Amino acid sequence: MPQSRTAGVPVQSRRPSLGFGPGPSPLGRLLLWIALLTGPLSSVCGAPAPPKFTKIPTDQIGVSGGVASFVCQASGHPKPVVYWNKKGKKVNSQRIETVEFDEGAGAVLRIQPLRPPRDENIYECVARNSEGEVSVTAKLAIIREDLLPFGFPSIDMGPQLKVVERTRTATMLCAASGIPDPEISWFKDFLPIDPASSQGRIKQLRSG
User: Is residue 161 located within the same domain as residue 108?
Assistant: First the structure.
């Protein structure tokens, strides 16, 4: 290694070490620890990703005068915006309401009361961010109440208003019949309830 002399004393020239060679300096060790703790910037902020649906709406058959709700949700980075179209245009009606959740990455399309044939259509859910756009469709058909086919689902007992003390347990009952047995979904303020994300506070129990 080249040497320099100062006042007649041989001194080895040294470069500041940043921790990548033998004997790292305190500054080098600090930088290395920060890199190990935080990782690459892309892993902290999230790599850009186009929208991808996590919940897609399904075709429905509603009863005239009743209600229909379609649920749509997407993921991506940056977080996508989800909205609903009818005939290529954003839905706009006093009877058709869009309720957003998950900071706009999810949206419930709620139609009430159902009016045939005006509401019978194909509805499109669109998810968009700076990385791209995806869409999915669902069809709504409406039947008059006096023309319901045998086995069509019906609510036999709906939930009732309850007053419960704070920290106590509230039980809401709902019973439906049909052939085959219908599946029951719960909504709160027009938004779907997911018991899995309630940290055990909400449970859906089946009977019979």
Answer: no
Q: CA separation (Å) from 28 to 19, 31, 50, 92, 179?
A: 4, 5, 38, 60, 70
Q: Are residues 154 and 203 in the same domain?
A: yes
DSSP the chain: --EEEETTEEEE--PPP-SSSSS--HHHHHHHHHHHHH--HHHHH---EEEEEEE----EEEETTS-EEEEEEEEEESPPEEEEEETTEE---SSEEEEEEGGGTEEEEEE-S--TTTT-EEEEEEEEETTEEEEEEEEEEEE-GGGPPTT--EEEE--------TTS------EEE-SSPPP---EETTEE--GGGTTTS-------
**pLDDT higher for 129 or 202?**
129
Taking only the tens place, the pLDDT of each residue in 53-81 is: 999 999 999 999 999 999 999 999 999 99
The answer to whether the pTM exceeds 0.85 is no
Average pLDDT, the chain: 82
Q: Are strands 187-188 and 132-143 parallel, antiparallel or unpaired?
A: unpaired
Same domain, 121 and 50: yes
| 111 part of a folded domain | yes
In a domain, 16, yes or no: no
- Other CB atoms within a 10 A radius of the CB of residue 100 amount to 14
Instruction: Say which CATH number the domain at 132 has.
Output: 2.60.40.10
